[in-house]
Amino acid sequence: MALFSQDSLNTGVKKREVFGWAMYDFANSGYTTVVITAVFAAYFVGGIAQKAEWATFAWTAALSVSYAIVMLTMPSLGAYADLHAAKKRLLALTTIACVIATACLAFAGPGSVTLAIVLIILSNTFYAYGESLTGAFLPELAKPEAFGKVSGWGWSFGYFGGMLALGISLAYVLWSQSKGIPAEKFVPVTMLITAVIYGASACVTFWLLKERALPNPKALQQSGFKASLAQLKTTFNQAKHYKDFMWFLACGVCYQGGVAVAITLAAIYAEQVIGFKPQETMVLIFVLNVAAAVGAFGFGYFQDKVGHKIALSLTLVGWIATCIIAAITTTKSGFWYAAAIAGFCMGSSQSAGRAMAAMFAPPKQVGEFFGLWTFATRLASIIGSLSYGAITWMTGGNQRIAIMSTSVLFIAGLLLLIPVNVSRGRAAALNAA
What we know:
The chain is built from 16 helices and no strands. By secondary structure, it is an all-alpha fold. The chain has a single domain (about 15-210, about 235-430), classed as MFS general substrate transporter like domains (Growth Hormone, Chain: A), CATH 1.20.1250.20. Helix 3 (about 55-85) runs parallel beside helix 5 (about 115-135), helix 7 packs antiparallel against helix 8 and helix 7 (about 145-180) packs antiparallel against helix 11 (about 280-305). The mean pLDDT is about 85.
C-alpha cells in the first residue's frame, strides 16, 4: 500500500474517496476503448458506411462536430461548476446522457449513417464533459507535489475499465463469429455492454466522491450561465498573467491532436492498412490498454520525481517514433511494436497532461481551467482527426502518408512545450487565489 500513500492526499481526503474518483476513469474508458477505438469506429467505416471512399472522413467529421460543441461550451460550463459548486451534479447529468446515447448506438445498422453520426456526436460530447469535470476534482484530492502519481492512479485504473468492457465484448464477438452471427448483429450488443459497465461503475463514483467546493454567493444572485460567462471573460482578459498555462494549451492543441488520431483511428488503420481482422484488432487494443495502464501508473511517479515538463517531453518523443514505425511497417508483427509504444505513451501523456493542467489551475477556478484545457484538447481532436481524414481522402486512401504526417503534430507540441515554466505557472495560479 506504500504505492498509494496517504501522504499524497490533501487533509481530510481518504483513500476510498480517491478510489471513487478513479472509478470514473474506470467507467468511461470503456466508451473510448470499445466505441471510439476498437469496435464501432471500424464498424462504422466497414459496416454502416459500407467502405465508401468518404467513410473515414465522415467518421472524423462526426467526431469533430462533437469536439467543436465541447470547445464552445465546456469553458463556460466549467466556470458555472466552480461558481455554483456543481461539478458532481453536472458530472451525474452528463454521465446519464452519455450512457443513454451509447446504448442507443445499438440501433445503428448498415446504411443508417445519419443515425450513427448523430448518436456519436451526442455520446462523445457528453463523454468529453464528464472527462473534464472529473479532472477538476484532482486539485481537491491530491497535494500539488503528487498530482502526477494521483492522476496516474486514476488513469491507469481507468484502462482496466476499458479492458473489462473490451474483454467482455471480445468474448461475445468470438462466440458470435463461431455461430456465424454477422457484425450487424453482434456489434450492437457490444454497445449495450459498454453502456452498462459505464453506468454501473460510475455509480461508485457518485457514492464515494464528495463535492468540496462552496458556491459563490454572487453567482447565486444571477441566473443561468450569466455569472459563468462573466467569469470566463475576466479570465481571458487576464490571460497575460497565465502565460505558462497559455503555452501549455498551445502545446496541448498540437500533441493531443496526435493522440486523438491514435484513439479514433487505430482500429481503422490496423484493419484497412495492415490487414488485421476484427478479432485481432480487439486483441491489439486490449494489449494496448495494458501498456497504457502501466505507462500511466509508472510515469505518474516518474513525473513527480523528474518534473512535469521533462516527463511530457519524453512521451512526445515516443509518439514521434510510433508514427514513423506505423507508417513504414508492412507486417502485423511490426505494427505490434508501434502499438506497444503508443500504448505506453498514451497512458503517460494523457495522465501527464491532466496533472499539468491541475498545476496551472487556480484553486477557485479548477472547473474553468479544466474547461479551457478541454477546449484545447477538443480543438486538437478536430485538427488531428480532420487532417488525417482529409489527407487520406486527398491521397486516394493512403493512410500511411496520413499517419506519418501526424508526427508533425507531436514535433510541434514538443517545440511549444519549451517556453513552459511549471514553477512560474504554479505561482501564478496561487497568486490568483
